[in-house]
Amino acid sequence: xxxxxxxxxxxxxxxxxxxxxxxxxxxxxxxxxxxxxxxxxxxxxxxxxxxxxxxxxxxxxxxxxxxxxxxxxxxxxxxxxxxxxxxxxxxxxxxxxxxxxxxxxxxxxxxxxxxxxxxxxxxxxxxxxxxxxxxxxxxxxxxxxxxxxxxxxxxxxxxxxxxxxxxxxxxxxxxxxxxxxxxxxxxxxxxxxxxxxxxxxxxxxxxxxxxxxxxxxxxxxxxx
Length: 224
Prior knowledge:
By secondary structure, this protein is mainly β. The chain has helices at residues 62-67, 151-156; strands spanning 9-12, 17-20, 25-26, 30-33, 38-42, 47-48, 57-59, 69-76, 87-95, 99-101, 106-109, 114-115, 119-121, 127-131, 136-137, 146-148, 158-165, 176-184, 187-190, 208-211. The protein has two helices and 20 strands. Strand 15 (136-137) and strand 16 form a beta hairpin.
């Protein structure tokens, strides 16, 4: 009697991984033995660009992300002979994307400080402030820090304040958000030096204004 020995089917869907919730998944399945092809399927609601390719790209669906993970199954064809098809599965767990909110833009006078109101979320566990200018923060790790504009900030009349998250998982990467602070020069006024005049004389004034002031008005504590 002649005995024909067929190769068993081999299949691997790859190793389980953690991925960022806004990423697509490039798969790396392998087959061997008697298998000549395989097809991907999912327990979730995402989609494959081509489920017949071992290195297909899977785009997670909303339900996948909401549930925190998805299992993908790689199933071989059923080759000719006594060896059945086989399957393997891989699970991808989602890490929520970090988020940062530096809050709304602000307008301040050049002699004022900026009260911040930042926030962070997602998988971020901390965030810190930085500046495009030369001012300083009371505490870069405090979401309600105070920013004092520097001389360069005042000269350029604006500064960007950036809130950047950490990346605790090492999967998603940090993220940032910016707010713009517009800095307006404060008004200055100089009424001139004190004068002594004769009671029948007019007083010629020599006032000046500067900074953000564009107009001026005189008033008196007398009746002139």
